[in-house]
Structures are given as structure tokens and as C-alpha cells.
Amino acid sequence: MINFTIKFQYGSPIYEQIVYAVKKAIATGQLKAGDKFPSVREMSKDLRINPNTAGKVVGHLVREGMLEVRPGIGSVVSQLSPASKDQRNKILNDQVEELIVESKRLSISKEDVINAIDSNWSLKERKGK
Amino acid sequence: MINFTIKFQYGSPIYEQIVYAVKKAIATGQLKAGDKFPSVREMSKDLRINPNTAGKVVGHLVREGMLEVRPGIGSVVSQLSPASKDQRNKILNDQVEELIVESKRLSISKEDVINAIDSNWSLKERKGK
DNA sequence: GGCGGTGTACTATGTGATATAGTACAGTTA
DNA sequence: TAACTGTACTATATCACATAGTACACCGCC
Asked: How many Å apart are CA A17 and CA B124, to the nearest integer?
């Protein structure tokens, strides 16, 4: 059974959207460390995607340290690991910079951006959308 | 003459990297409204890319409202326009959400993220890297 | 009027990522 | 043994990206 939500969009590859959905599910607590992750075949059937695409998702998540594979058994959500220096820099410099550039481009104030982060930190469901 | 800086990387398309570099140059004030933007042929020669790729850059920037084309003359950096509701939401919801998800995944605290935004808002050059 | 510059629109080619279908294998549980 | 797991293949089709080259309408300058 699939225990996270997906809504496919155009513009980015399917496997990438699923990977992000899983990251988000973990960040929100929908998926917790130790939870069983859907099998490749189950995922491909439920989401109606190719088994290879589903396998690609698992591969990515394993490589990023969010999933552990028990050979013959399946995969399990792994413990959150603290960021390495590189990962930390990538977020706190590059990704933050991108947010700032986009905000400035559209004349959004620093306060509005910080407020958005502060009030969305818990990642509760937004209504509408 | 090219008046912004680029350093090509793997992983994302050339035209996208240039578009972002221009956005950043505008955000930092390196490029100001009214400044003449390099021509397609000049850009393709200086950056050693195909004229079509350079044309793609101009097309994107025009579509996003950062460049104005004077037919027969060239293109010019246009005035910053305030964000539409959709653009504002895309940043303040989607892009902020992505930053939060990535941060939580790597156990980076909300305070660290907000501090990074606060102290990088001026977009001064970082040393090293 | 003509030259040289501008953005833009074509055709065409090659490469790589993405998604699909199908098959196969080693490992583990029941 | 039977049924499940992730993984690794071959093969095909499509699309984005980057390249090369040509062409056109437009404008400023001499």
C-alpha cells in the first residue's frame, strides 16, 4: 500500500516527482524511520508506472540515504542523518541564494520570505492549491 | 561585451545556467534597467555557444519580463516588475516548501535557514568556492 | 540606398535522459 | 517450494538539448 501522496505534473520527470514526494512525506512525518517502503512492483502497479521507473526511485532514495534495502525483503525508511558540510552548504548557500534571487526579481521583501519560512516550517497541508 | 559572469557546470542545460546568471546579475545590481544586453551573435561568440542557444536565452528572458527587444536594435534590461499573485505563490509556497523539505531532511534548524537568508540577502560575493 | 547590426524562424543532425515493455537472477520469507 | 524482494539486463520510442547553417524583416548610420 502506498502511504504518501502524489499528483503528477508536466515539466519534470516522474521519478523525480516521486522522489520529492517521499522526501516531503518524511519531512512531514507521514513516513517515519523504520516504515516499510512500497516494493518496486507494488509501486509500479499502484502508480501505473513502469517497474524500471519505480526501481529508479528506489535507487535514488537509497543513494541519498533515505532508504535502506534488505535484500530479498524490501526497503525501509532509514533514520534521518545529519547533513555533511557539503550538503549543508548546498542548501544554505546555493538553494537560499536561488530563493533570494527569485524574490528580488519579483520585488518580494525579505520579511515576506522569512515570514513564509517561519509559518510554513511545520509543513501543514495548505488549503486550496 | 558580456557584463555578467558565468561558470558552466554539469547537470543543467547551458541556456538555463545563463538565464539564472542574468537573473542574479540583475538582483545584485550588476545589470540595471536600461542596460544594453549582449546580442545573440556576440553572446554566442564570447561564451562559445551556438547562436540558437543564445537566442533561447533571450527568448526566455523576454518571456519572463526581464528583457525588452527593440526590433532591429537589440535588447535592453527592463524595469523590475512587481510579482503577480501566481508568481508570488510559486515562490512563497513551492520554492520555500522545497527549501524546508531539504532542510528538514538534513536536520538543519529553522534558525539556521532564516539566518542564512538574512545574512545573504544583499547577495555579496562569497569568498572561496 | 546600402551596409551592418539586431532578434527570430526555419531545417537538419547528433546525443543523452526519460519512460516504456519484457526477461532474468540472486536473495529471503513463509 | 512458492512467492516475494531489489537489481540488471536488452530493446524501443520520444523528447530536450546543443550544434550547424541559412534566411528574413527590422532599424541606425553613412
From this structure: 33
